[in-house]
Design brief:
InterPro entries: Aldolase_TIM, AmmeMemoSam_rS, Elp3/MiaA/NifB-like_rSAM, Organic_radical-activating, Pyrv-formate_lyase-activ_prd, rSAM, rSAM_sf. This protein is an alpha/beta fold. The chain contains 8 helices and 20 strands. The structure holds iron/sulfur cluster (SF4).
Length: 367
């Protein structure tokens, strides 16, 4: 018997689905297009069919909350130095063999969703903690979009922004609806090969590229991350192809992050990414004309520093998540030559540093 039930306070109706002639109901949120019989859950686990409709069964529940530096998302051009209240739920619509958050994203245990938080409680807590934004991260907000959008709206009412960390695997109509509520995003571009996407993530590359091109047409500030996995997505040819596409379709001002892999989940036999690989990827991207290319998950001040495109001066020096020197005005212009760095800058640089602060939000009914 199914455990899905609209009487459950954490289960809500959704709207991106349609009935099929064969009696199944199709969820239209992501390109998985799960076709479900009564009582079945989709691949993401948190959406499923009950009462002849697709429901979200994790509204108002989270796997936990933590205050992080915004640079950890990673976003280097969005309210630098500020703190962000991060949270995720359970499940995921991808199935990456290298997942670095697999305990959450692959969870089939509702126990993972141990923390309750209504959108209003979450926004209030973010305000109380002095966070300038809230981030949907750890797992992909695509699958809990109804909850994420309500949290984003509650945050916006308090002047707090909303950040999505996503693999960008989403269908067009829900994507447009979702990103109307979002201020900034970091999208994982997991590789630049169809084979990698199909074999390692069980998804399709062109549909992710479509999301990146879509974001370029919106006001959402976005940055892109590629996790480099030794021997799988780090060849010169693949990196050159990715960066050439990036320059042509997204332009040189969108920041690109190359981050280091560590062995995890079903890929424990592959070694950690050497720093030389990150440096090589960064060099290839700079040669393709990209202006803001960063390396992550390592100490590398040069590879984490923002350089002014006008005068060539280092304007934001970072070491991992810590800002060491800051040479921008409150609106993001170089103090030396006045050239504006693309991004969202609004006031003085934050001072959160590298701290990670786990948070408990007082339990209240979700609705
Ligand atoms: S969001 Fe979940 S249920 Fe919907 S199509 Fe994607 S994986 Fe399937």
């Amino acid at each position: 018997m199914s455990d899905l039930n609209l009487d459950d306070p954490y289960t809500v109706p959704t709207k991106h689905w349609h009935a099929l002639d064969d009696g199944r109901v199709q969820c239209d949120v992501c390109p998985r297009n799960c076709r479900l019989r009564e009582g079945q859950r989709g691949l993401c686990f948190v959406r499923g069919r009950t009462a002849d409709q697709i429901v979200l069964a994790s509204y108002g529940r989270s796997s936990g909350f933590c205050v992080d530096p915004i640079e950890k998302k990673p976003l280097n051009h969005f309210l630098p130095g500020s703190s962000v209240l991060s949270f995720g739920t359970a499940g995921c619509n991808l199935a990456c063999r290298f997942c670095q958050n697999w305990d959450i994203s692959k969870s089939r245990e509702i126990d993972t969703l141990s923390a309750d938080a209504s959108p209003e409680a979450l926004a209030a807590e973010a305000g109380r903690l002095g966070c300038r934004s809230v981030a949907f991260t750890y797992n992909d907000p695509v699958i809990f979009m109804e909850y994420a959008m309500d949290v984003a709206d509650a945050c916006r009412e308090r002047g707090i922004r909303a950040v999505a960390v996503s693999a960008g695997y989403m269908n067009a109509a829900p994507r447009e609806e979702f990103y109307r509520h979002i201020d900034a995003a970091n999208i994982d571009l997991k590789a630049f090969s169809d084979t990698f996407y199909e074999k390692v993530t069980f998804a399709k590359l062109p549909l992710v590229l479509e999301t990146l091109e879509y974001l370029k047409t919106t006001d959402v500030w976005f940055e892109v991350t590629t996790l480099l996995i030794p021997g799988l997505n780090d060849s010169d040819a693949e990196l050159a192809a990715e960066c050439a596409w990036f320059a042509e379709h997204l332009g040189p001002d969108v920041p690109l992050h190359f981050s280091a892999f560590h062995p995890d989940f079903k890929m424990r036999d592959i070694p950690r990414t050497p720093p030389q690989t990150l440096a090589r990827a960064r060099r290839i991207a700079l040669e393709q004309g990209l202006k803001y290319v960063y390396v992550g998950n390592v100490h590398d001040v040069d590879g984490q520093t923002t350089t002014c495109a006008g005068c060539g001066d280092p304007v934001v020096k970072r070491d991992w998540y810590v800002i060491k020197e800051y040479g921008l005005t409150d609106t993001g212009a170089c103090k030396r030559c006045g050239t504006t760095v693309p991004g969202r800058f609004d006031g003085p640089v934050g001072t959160w540093g590298a701290r990670r602060l786990p948070v408990r939000i007082p339990p209240v009914p979700a609705r």
